[in-house]
């Protein structure tokens, strides 16, 4: 089956797998095209099977969702049948508009105000209290204009984020596999499409592979199916593979969401991306530290000022010794500590400049790992950095020319964890401006990391 994407450039991989850039359509033109296609497609199918030749021209038979589903998988599984459909994918709401009204600064009393103000409005959803995406500037929804058989192939969201999409128009059939069974789905894909994976080892990142639910079931992959009708929302969970197709003309909007419990999934995602040398689209370290700073501020306001606002209470609920935010920060700090400990060579510590990754994320030259908290560099290059795993591949310069850049020392990060756990002194300490704090303390405080580096620096012995 071929899908032509409208108003969107198809990548080389898209082209290889039958996705091509299509013509430009207006919304109305697309709608008319979609209706005509479906009518004639199923009319013809019906006519072939119809017994009375005189009745074949105008049939009013409407295929059910199950009829369309059967036909869809028949086409996908029989590559000799060529069916071409169009799909307006990943259209930016900033350019093409959103189906949800934007909140006006003045509430007018119109009916549309309730939709403008609603938390279910996709324009606000990613920035609701408790969502760590509020630290990311660009989290606008995308629009999808679809027709019968236009499909979305098996995918997980970038950074294993949650996604939320409402549907308007004809039903959308969605299949889902829970995050815990993602590796099972990947194994099944590799087993059934060995040649494709040989050509393109990270094929699943390209969103071009469809495999039928019956094949996945036969491989023991637990699968869920949902028919999404007009006005219904579908929420996908971290690393939950999903795919599907449309039963006719419809329009969907989708946005990624990151409640605090996503942080640990996002951490797993960046570790996986580093192993696959896959580029990250956003800095996980910024999300993590941004969330921790907001939370500490909230804890300070609660304990010192007694400000029991919804926002403050919401942050408090993810803190404490066992809180999910505390756990996520602790896991990352332990990980940093282990990486520093296992460095095969000793690198000199250096304070990370404030503007190190202020405007653009910095990534490892080798695996694209996010370097917001820690990076390695050498005097021989001013714009090349690496993660600690790849510090040894950096260059062949003398070790004295190489540095480890730290945003915060391990001691500072441990204090941050203690603040999140609720220790009063740590809350007061961490609620100060952390940026100013680290510029003065990194050089003066003999942190654990600082000490360790000193003790193995050949010039110190
Ligand atoms: Zn790396
Ligand atoms: Zn060098």
Salient structural properties:
461 residues, alpha+beta, Jelly Rolls, 2 domains, 7-stranded mixed beta sheet, disordered C terminus, binds zinc ion, Znf_C5HC2, histone H3K4me/H3K4me2/H3K4me3 demethylase activity
Structure notes:
One of its GO terms (molecular function) is histone H3K4me/H3K4me2/H3K4me3 demethylase activity. The chain has 2 domains: 2-257, Jelly Rolls, CATH 2.60.120.650; 262-460, no CATH class. By secondary structure, it is α+β, with helices and mostly antiparallel strands. α10 packs across α11 and α12 (324-341) packs antiparallel against α13 (410-421). The chain is 38% helix and 17% strand. The chain is globular and about 75 Å long. α1 (12-16) links the parallel β1 (2-5) and β2. It binds zinc ion (2 copies). One zinc ion is lined by residues 378, 380, 395, 397, 401.
Could you provide a short overview of the structure?
The chain is α+β, with helices and mostly antiparallel strands and 461 residues long. The protein has 16 helices and 14 strands. Strand 1, helix 1 and strand 2 (19-21) form a beta-alpha-beta unit.
Order of strands in the sheet with the most strands? 2-1-3-4-11-6-9
- Total strand segments: 14
Total count of helical runs of at least 4 residues: 16
SSE pattern, N- to C-terminal: EHEHHEHHEEEEHHHEEEEHHHHEEEHHHH
Structural category = alpha+beta
Q: What is the fold named in CATH at topology level of the largest domain? A: Jelly Rolls
> How would the global form be characterised?
globular
**Mean residue pLDDT:** 82
| Low-confidence runs | 6-10, 434-461
Domain JmjC: 114-274
Organism: Prunus persica
Protein name: JmjC domain-containing protein
InterPro entries: JmjC_dom (IPR003347), Znf_C5HC2 (IPR004198)
């Amino acid at each position: 089956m071929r899908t032509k994407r409208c108003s969107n450039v198809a990548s080389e991989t898209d082209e290889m797998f039958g996705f091509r850039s299509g013509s430009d359509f207006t919304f109305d033109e697309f709608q008319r095209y979609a209706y005509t296609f479906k009518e004639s497609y199923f009319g013809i199918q019906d006519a072939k099977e119809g017994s009375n030749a005189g009745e074949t021209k105008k049939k009013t038979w409407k295929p059910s969702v199950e009829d369309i589903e059967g036909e869809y998988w028949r086409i996908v599984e029989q590559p000799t049948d060529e069916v071409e459909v169009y799909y307006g994918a990943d259209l930016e709401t900033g350019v093409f508009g959103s189906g949800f009204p934007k909140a006006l600064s003045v509430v007018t009393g119109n009916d549309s105000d309730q939709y403008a103000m609603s938390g279910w409005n996709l324009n606000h959803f990613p920035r609701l209290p408790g969502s760590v995406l509020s630290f990311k500037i660009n989290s606008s929804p995308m629009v999808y204009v679809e027709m019968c058989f236009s499909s979305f192939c098996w995918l997980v969201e970038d950074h294993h984020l949650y996604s939320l999409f409402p549907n308007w128009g004809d039903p959308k059939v969605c299949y889902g596999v829970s995050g815990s069974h993602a590796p099972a789905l990947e194994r099944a894909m590799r087993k059934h499409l060995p040649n494709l994976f040989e050509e393109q080892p990270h094929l699943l990142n390209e969103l071009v592979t469809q495999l039928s639910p019956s094949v996945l079931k036969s491989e023991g992959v637990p699968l869920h199916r949902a028919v999404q009708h007009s006005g219904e929302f579908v929420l996908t969970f971290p690393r939950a593979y999903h795919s599907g197709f449309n039963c006719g003309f419809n329009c969907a909007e989708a946005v990624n969401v990151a409640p605090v419990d996503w942080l640990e999934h996002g951490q797993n995602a960046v570790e996986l991306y580093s192993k696959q040398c896959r580029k990250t689209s956003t800095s996980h370290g910024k999300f993590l530290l941004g969330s921790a700073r907001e939370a500490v501020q909230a804890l300070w306001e609660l304990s010192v000022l007694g400000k029991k606002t919804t926002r403050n209470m919401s942050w408090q609920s993810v803190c404490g010794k066992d809180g999910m935010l505390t756990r996520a920060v602790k896991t990352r700090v332990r990980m940093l500590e282990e990486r520093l400990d296992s460095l095969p060579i000793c690198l000199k510590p250096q304070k990370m400049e404030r503007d190190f990754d202020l405007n653009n994320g910095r990534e490892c030259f080798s695996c694209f790992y996010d370097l917001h908290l820690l990076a390695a560099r050498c005097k021989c290059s001013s714009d090349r950095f690496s993660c600690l795993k790849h510090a040894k591949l950096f260059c062949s310069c003398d070790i004295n020319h190489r540095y480890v850049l730290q945003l915060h020392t391990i001691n500072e990060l441990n204090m941050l964890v203690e603040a999140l756990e609720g220790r009063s002194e740590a809350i007061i300490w961490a609620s100060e401006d952390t940026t100013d704090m680290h510029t003065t303390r990194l050089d003066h405080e003999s942190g654990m990391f600082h000490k360790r580096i000193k003790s193995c620096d050949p010039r110190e012995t």
